[in-house]
Amino acid sequence: MKGKKRFRSVTELVADVTDDENTIDAVKRTVDETSLGTMLFRIRCQRGLTQAQVATEMNTTQSAVSKIEHSPDDRISVRQIVRYTQAIGMTLTLTFDRPRNAVDQVKALFAEICEKMDELREIAGDDETIRRGVESFHDEWLFNTVLRVIEGKNELRTAPALKPHRTLTVVASEDPSDEFVRRLIRRYVKENADAKLASEKN
């Protein structure tokens, strides 16, 4: 039996099934733009660092840093990635998890958000200024989250197809949760208006 044809890259596979140069070039650009080395390069540039600076932090040469940024994904080791991310002042998070549906992902993200909120409260401690900042952030996050939840419910009730938008149209409903979130929004708006008025007087 004839063995399966093997390809060293996605670009080679595409070139084998089509002669269209535009398609091949488009795939190559997509692969290049989403490669690990390219992402590291972009992050370094965003942080305003040169290859020489990263090389110094990694205790290596500039050419070694350049090689990491231009190597195929399968040629970059985990150790290199860890050292590179440390050199640019970032951390690497590697997650192994079972496949999850959208509902499971939302639940997991919410649990993570709750943990981060707890961390913020711990950081604030007894510092009144930081505590006010954390409290303000809590209110802002709650407002934005509740607003998006209401938008989502409205879209489910009124639209044949889900289309994201940024306007809030309240739909009449017997759902008690709707009235609850409306009260939260009204309170949030009033408190912020009062705070703004007080600051203007001062």
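(ticket continues) Second input and output from the same batch:
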Amino acid sequence: MRTLMMMVVLLGGFIGVHGQDHHDIDFLTTDALPEENDEPEPDLKKISVSLNSATADELMTLTFLSSLNVQAIQEYRATYGTIHSIYELMYIPGLDLAVIPLLVKCMTPGKAPSPSARQILKDGEFTWQHRMVRVYEKASPDHPLKAWSRLAWVSGTRIQCALTIEKDPGEPGWTRGPDYRSAFIFCRNLNPWIKQLVIGDFQVAFGQGATVWSAFSTRAAFHSLGGKKVASRLRPHTGSDENRFLRGTGATIHIGHWWFTPYISGHRVDGYLKDNGEPVIYQSGLHRTTTELSYHHGIIDRSMGGELSWSRRWLTVGYITSWQSFRDTANRKVAAPVTARSGIHYMVEYRRLSLHGEHTVQSAHGHAHLLGMRYKTEGLILCGRLETLNAFYNGLSANIFGTNPGEAGITSLYLSLNGKAGSKLQYDVFMHRKSAMITPEHLAFNFPEVEWGTRLTFATYELYSLYIALRIRTKETSVSLDDLRLEQVEISEQFTTRIHFQHHLTSTWQLRLRYDNLRQSSGRVLRQGHLVYMDLKWSTPRRHLSGYFRYAVFDAPGYDQRLYMYENDLKGLWTIPSYYGTGLRSYACIRYHRGRQADVSMKVARTVYRYRLNEGWQAKNEVKIQWIIRF
């Protein structure tokens, strides 16, 4: 069976990086950390998942599947019913061909068998993953090394246990213990009723995210996922973010058509409370300077809540509630008012049409509303999403709408259209309009922002792919007039053009070229930024040894004209750094792995900047080393 599936993949070819096409990753929110997808990887040979009966939570247990892949499988089942053959996987829109061989290894046509406790212990394996990062020019001379280490025990997708420690550059060494410690025990499908159980550090995601959502999320972009959120209700916290997670316990109970997920959490975060009780949370996680150390674990964050939902065939309805409080660590009498949220969410799926929404009310007269739709025909997908929240609503820890501090009173409309013209041409169009009211202490009028984009992709998967994308963004910005000590509003327009080409030179070599151009006009001032890069990817016939090389040139006059590049990193990591100024960027990655027992990778990067003020050059050198040992 495995040999047959590999022949199918080779005939069709593949385009994909880490289970998701990289030009979709480019438009993910910048709030997401690279470690967010660094979940312990199970042995696929010891996993059995039924594609016809598995829920979204069960599909998310497969770490190589992205949210896009899970949504594609669900929509295909809802439209065409039972998946009868592995050949059908090739024709599921949105399912990357690179993940199909991995999916075949663990799929079963019927209901997945339930292993015994003895079998679970027998299938378990330990994984030690260690990572070191050194930036030579910017790191502290006393403690320049960043170190991250994890010891995990994984048994298929049933049980995961992990202990993670980390030390950032500039922080004291290991003499006083690691700066960051995280641990969890996560169980799935313990019995027919307990579907999920987590103890330790974890993330939650209910409904469409208006009430409680701390999991990974995407911003408005070309792909249709921008109109609908898909995530597991509970998942372990596998990143190194020291503040945005929950610490406690949670469980998902399934009885009949009912799902119940309660949770409780309490931990210390970096920050302080203002005189009015409003919390200020620092997200950097660095503790080097006197100021940073004074805010270390300055706030106690306590929360509890849950979700109760009913689901049957085409209808899902649920109720969500949560309570969150902040208290000063040094003076327990100083506390912020308790924030309570309650909401209902629903999803209706009938043939090709899907409707979803969530309506939330919050203490102090806050409220938020989300309405979304998705219509799919043969070769065409239409999505829409409307979001509104008033000035009294906030999402302190959930980062629900991807808003910036100080924004409130948001109205957002998102529309996207994805379709195919023939077997090789694909077109994508989206529009996103957002209007936000800045807090009264700054300004008292709206800042509307409109963004739309279009992309044409031409691909013959066995040889090459080419796409051209255009994005236009218009918004009002506040400009300070120092001489008059006043502020005026200017309309800023930003045009971004991208040309991307990818070609499989041979079975072991792959070439990728990209050109980005950004034009920004504000008033009568026009600024432009350029980015060009070339990638070469190489692997041995048996793929035990692989390498990746990039050479990039960028020229952007200022921070507002910055350009982003998605970068392949060590296994389990990806980064999307921004570049501005004039300079060169090059890096090389090499990876060696022998089965699942050992995996060693290294990345060497160098960035050279040219600053116009002193007409000099400044270099930044970075080295990353990682090894993964399983036993």
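Agent notes: The helical segments are 2-12, 22-25, 56-59, 67-80, 100-106, 117-123, 290-294. Residues 1-30+49-112 form one domain. Closing as not reproducible unless the customer responds.
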